Amino acid sequence: MPAPCPLCSSCRSYPLPVAGKAYHRCLACELVWLDEADHLDEAAEKAVYDDHDNRVDDPGYRRFLMRAFGEVLARVSPPACGLDFGCGPGPALVAMGRESGFEMAGYDKFYANDPELLSREYDFITSTEVVEHLADPRAVLDGLWARLKPGGVLVVQTQRVLGDERFRTWRYRQDPTHIVFFAEASFRALGARWQAGVEFPHQDVVVFTKP
Question: What Pfam families does the annotation carry (predicted)?
C-alpha cells in the first residue's frame, strides 16, 4: 500500500528513491517526505544542529530572517505577542521581535523546551527553517494554528520543492535532518483545511492569516 501523506493523510503517493534513501511524494498535496527508516536518531539530529553557527548578533543571519520577520512587521503592530517556533540555540528572531516592541518568546525542543509556551495564545507565530525537520508536520502545524488568536498570522520560511528531477539534485535535500519538503500546493492544502488566507511573498516564505 502507498505510504499515507504525513500532511494531508492521502494514500495517493508514489515512491521517489534518491541516493539510496526512500522518499515518497503525495499526489494530492505534492509533499515529499523521507521514510521513517531513514531518519536520524535524536542524538545525531541534535549533533547537526549543534554545528550550526547562528548567532543573535550576526547581521547576515538577521537579514536572512527578515524575509519572514518583515512579513510580521507588515501585518502586526506592537505591542503584540509572538512566538518563534524552533528558535534554535541563537534566538535571533526573538531578539529582533523584542527590539521591535513585541512581547516575544522562543520555543525549541532541543534548546528552549518549555511546553508551557505551546499552551498560550499568540498574535503571530514564526517558524524559520524548521518545518522541513518535522516527522509529523500535520500535528505540529495544526498545534501552532490552534495557538493563534483570530486575525493572527503564521509565517513559515522553508525552501519549496519543485519537480521530481530537480528534487533528485537539490542541495536542500542533502541535509540529513531535512525529512519533509513542502510544495506550494502543500501549503495551499493547509490553508484550505484551516480556511485561512495564504500568501507567498517570497520563494521560501508563506504567510497564513487566521479568520
Answer: Methyltransf_23
